[in-house]
Amino acid sequence: MIFDPVLLTVENLRVSFDGFVALDIDEFVLHDRELRVVIGPNGAGKTTFLDVLCGKTRPDRGSARFEKFDLTQMSEDAIVKAGVGRKFQTPSVFTSLTVYENLMLALKTDRTVLFSLVSRLSDKNRDRINAVAEQTGLADHLHTVADALSHGQKQWLEIAMVILQDPELFLIDEPAAGMTDEETVKTGELLERLTMNHAIIVIEHDMEFVRQIARTVTVLHEGKVLVEGPMDQVQNDPRVIECYLGSAQH
Ligand SMILES: Nc1ncnc2c1ncn2[C@@H]1O[C@H](COP(=O)(O)OP(=O)(O)OP(=O)(O)O)[C@@H](O)[C@H]1O
Ligand SMILES: [Mg+2]
Fold first, then answer.
1. What is d(CA 165, CA 213) in angstroms, rounded to the nearest whole number?
2. For 220-236, what is each residue's pLDDT tens digit?
């Protein structure tokens, strides 16, 4: 199998909170346009891992090389500019604005909210917004106020807002949480389409969803990489079964 070039190399990465080691990854390698699913029981360190990659949490030691950068040394803003986009676990769209207005704001991250809303968009940007709305299943809802969207649609709007930043690496924490079965399937299809242009690390608990999209799965347990490999291999691994059985799931 021929892989695309390496995009991200994490080495020797450790995060502790008041002496408690939440993350301790020896090595994690991701290639261009790879879709990697990270699973693991509650408290395994999954969100902490993404927090480090987007600059929200500083590790005690280790590196996360992304192209010419070491993400562990950079501010959150600099990481976004370098091409790493993050969708958080809880939706944070502007609820009183329409889908279209939210997407406008996502395009113009360095301007004020008011300026973005009153300024005119170029044809090129308008086309981009329409294309991303189409891609994320929101084309018929451009003029819907975000608050009136379903939970799934709000998640797609957030994904659309990150797509508009055109990140090379897209980090997504539990996109299918709280979605209906149909929305979950659509979200899986969306992530698969996104790998044409982006590498993705997605954290997920919903095993149906993981089976739908997973190519390579990384299992975290107590902060460490327990197992990594193809989904069918991982789900039958006795170490994975044991760590899941030994912990309560939400
Ligand atoms: N800011 C913090 N301060 C102290 N402890 C923290 C902090 N953030 C995370 N932890 C702890 O670190 C461990 C890993 O947490 P993390 O949120 O990364 O787990 P997770 O795998 O995302 O879990 P879940 O599946 O529940 O989302 C947990 O024991 C958690 O309590
Ligand atoms: Mg989490």
1. 23
2. 999 999 999 999 899 89
Residues 145 and 243 in one domain: no
User: Closest residue (by CA) to atom 29 of ligand 1?
Assistant: 43
- Strand extents, DSSP E, 32-146: 35-39, 61-66, 69-70, 84-87
10 Å CB burial of residue 65 (0-12, 13-18, 19+) is middle
Atom number, ligand 1, closest to the C-alpha of residue 48: 18
**Residue 134 to residue 128: CA distance in whole angstroms:** 10
Does residue 247 line the site of ligand 1, with CB under 6 A? Answer: no
Pick from 142, 166, 190: which residue ends a domain?
Answer: 166
Task: Provide the whole-model pTM.
Answer: 0.91
Please tell me whether residues 10 and 71 are part of one structural domain. yes
Asked whether 58 lines ligand 1 (CB < 6 A), one says no
For residue 218, the cross-strand partners are 38, 228
Specify the CATH number for the domain of residue 228: 3.40.50.300
Number of domains the chain is built from: 2
